[in-house]
């Protein structure tokens, strides 16, 4: 889980997160706590530096799953007088987004929705209605509305953000596209949500790819399934069978269906697995020997492959085929993140 609207980590938070990555939770907390004490000593209670330090503690506690504590820290950061300078006001907006995300994580959707709306309004006032940052602030609100069933409004807001960001050519559109694709499914819109991606530069396309792949295994299962199916078609059209993006898209389908357990679409998982493995065979020149490929799964997600050969292989070919199939499954697991 990530919090929307947050700036790059401060040096203190970056150090704390590095410690957390090494499993040193206590030391990570000590770093941000010491920074807060230092900010209070230098700037005093109610100061903006102290508010930033509280927000750092909130971000760390959110990462630790301590949502109640994180919410209190973000709320405290938001209670200081509104800074007069643009940078301080942008910080305040980030604090508000953090507070809203914590409220959502605490199972308080109505309160979270109220704060997300305040964030969108504040961004509009801060940056102006036609600014990229104002459009970008609509995405977290829309994502929340999708989770709470207010799908028509979510789709409208995402269209508004998308249209403005597309006209401006702003890279913030990369965060809007995956959420908008989910909204298409939520409101039953049949249009291809990735129809415009062919016009994006490669670096922005890569950001969209990462955002779409991150949907796998979460959110509303059937909606994400539909988004991933659309994305596989896009990746096939844009990149083709030999490109890693298509392999990653297929792996995302497998990961999503595996995560759904009894609610999974077994056919979707099987087809995606077979196609991913077949692509691996073809890229390594082993496809000629295999006429068809049967795919099976254990309850824990372990994949079983049974190749039907076009002719008896030589001993060398048999060894090479076994090694290639093993590498294909390993690649598929790796692309699923497991």
Account of the protein in words:
With 338 residues, the chain is mainly alpha-helical. The protein has a domain at 221-338. It is built from 15 helices and 2 strands. The protein has a two-stranded antiparallel ribbon. A hairpin with a 5-residue loop joins strand 1 and strand 2 (303-309). Helix 3 runs antiparallel to helix 4 and helix 8 runs parallel beside helix 10 (173-186). The longest helix has 22 residues, at 315-336. The relative contact order is 0.05. The mean pLDDT is 93.
Q: Quickly give the structural class.
A: mainly alpha
Largest sheet strand order:
1-2
Taking the alpha carbons of the first and last residues, their distance comes to 18 Å
- How many β-strand stretches? 2
Give me the Rg, rounded: 24 Å
Shape, per Cα inertia axes: elongated
Helix content: 55-70%
Secondary structure blueprint with pairings:
Elements: H1 11-21, H2 25-43, H3 48-63, H4 67-78, H5 86-105, H6 109-127, H7 132-136, H8 138-147, H9 151-168, H10 173-186, H11 202-213, H12 221-238, H13 244-260, H14 266-283, E1 290-297, E2 303-309, H15 315-336
Antiparallel strand pairs: 1-2
Brief synopsis:
The protein is mostly helical. The protein contains 15 helices and two strands.
Keywords:
338 residues; 15 helices; single chain; mainly alpha; two-stranded antiparallel ribbon
């Amino acid at each position: 889980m990530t919090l929307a609207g947050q700036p790059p980590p401060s040096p203190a938070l970056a150090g704390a997160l590095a410690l957390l990555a090494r499993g040193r939770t206590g030391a990570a907390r000590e770093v941000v706590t010491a920074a807060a004490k230092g900010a209070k000593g230098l700037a005093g209670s109610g100061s903006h530096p102290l508010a930033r330090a509280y927000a750092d503690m909130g971000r760390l506690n959110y990462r630790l799953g301590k949502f109640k504590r994180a919410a209190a820290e973000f709320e405290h950061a938001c209670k200081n007088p509104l800074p007069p300078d643009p940078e301080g006001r942008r910080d305040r907006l980030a604090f508000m987004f953090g507070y809203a995300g914590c409220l959502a994580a605490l199972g308080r959707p109505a309160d979270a929705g109220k704060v997300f709306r305040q964030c969108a309004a504040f961004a509009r006032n801060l940056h102006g209605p036609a600014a990229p940052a104002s459009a970008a602030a609509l995405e977290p609100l829309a994502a929340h509305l999708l989770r709470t069933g207010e799908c028509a409004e979510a789709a409208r807001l995402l269209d508004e953000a998308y249209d403005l960001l597309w006209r401006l050519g702003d890279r913030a559109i990369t965060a809007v596209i995956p959420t908008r694709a989910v909204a298409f499914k939520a409101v039953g819109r049949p249009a291809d949500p990735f129809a415009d991606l062919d016009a994006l530069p490669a670096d922005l396309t890569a950001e969209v790819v990462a955002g779409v792949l991150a949907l796998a295994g979460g959110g509303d299962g059937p909606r994400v399934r539909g988004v991933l199916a659309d994305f596989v078609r896009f990746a096939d059209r844009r990149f083709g069978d030999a490109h890693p993006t298509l392999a990653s898209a297929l792996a995302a389908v497998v990961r999503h269906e595996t995560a759904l357990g009894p609610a999974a679409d077994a056919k979707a998982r099987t087809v995606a697995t077979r196609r991913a493995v077949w692509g691996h065979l073809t890229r390594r020149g082993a496809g000629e020997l295999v006429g068809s490929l049967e795919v099976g799964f254990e309850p824990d997600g372990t994949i079983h492959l049974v190749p039907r050969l076009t002719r008896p292989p030589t001993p060398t070919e048999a060894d090479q085929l076994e090694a290639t199939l093993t590498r294909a499954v390993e690649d598929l697991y790796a692309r699923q993140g497991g």
